[in-house]
Every structure is written in structure tokens, then in C-alpha cells.
């Protein structure tokens, strides 16, 4: 089964790689902006808060092997939060 849609790399991007990694060849740019940011402390990533703002610069979860499957496993929660009315 082909699953090429789960990986995209833009090595010509001026920010590539946007995180320090040991293996640039397998750096996945598919989720350039992490769709799990809105999950706050439930995203599962390695983040900190700086002056009340979530800082994901230490997280490589959306850029590593299995990134697509991990992000998709959290999408029901993202959809639930995004569907809430105030």
C-alpha cells in the first residue's frame, strides 16, 4: 500500500529544518504548522510556555517518523474543540 501522502519535505524552504534534528533526510514538513497546537497540554509534544505563549520549538513530533498517524489520532479532539460554540 502506497502512503506517500504522509510525508513531504521542502528542503528549499528558508527555514528548513525548522527544528534541530539528527536526521534531516527524514524530516517531514507536512505539518509545517502543527494542527495540534490548540490542544494545549494535551497535544503530547515537548513544549514550554513562555510568557503565557505555547512554545513548540523543542517538539519534533509532527516532523518525525509516524507524524501523520500521530496527528491524525488526535484530530477527533481538534474537531471537537473547533466545533464548540461559545
UniProtKB/TrEMBL annotation:
Residues 5-82 form the Cysteine-rich small domain. This is Cysteine-rich small protein. InterPro entries: Zf-like (IPR007212). It comes from the Bacteria.
Amino acid at each position: 500500500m502506497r502512503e506517500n501522502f504522509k510525508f513531504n519535505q521542502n528542503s528549499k524552504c528558508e527555514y528548513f529544518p525548522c527544528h534541530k534534528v539528527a536526521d534531516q533526510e527524514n524530516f517531514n514538513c507536512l505539518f509545517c504548522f502543527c494542527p495540534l497546537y490548540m490542544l494545549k497540554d494535551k497535544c503530547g509534544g515537548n513544549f514550554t510556555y513562555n510568557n503565557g505563549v505555547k512554545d513548540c520549538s523543542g517538539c519534533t513530533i509532527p516532523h518525525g517518523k509516524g507524524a501523520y498517524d500521530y496527528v491524525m489520532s488526535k484530530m477527533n479532539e481538534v474537531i471537537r474543540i473547533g466545533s464548540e460554540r461559545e
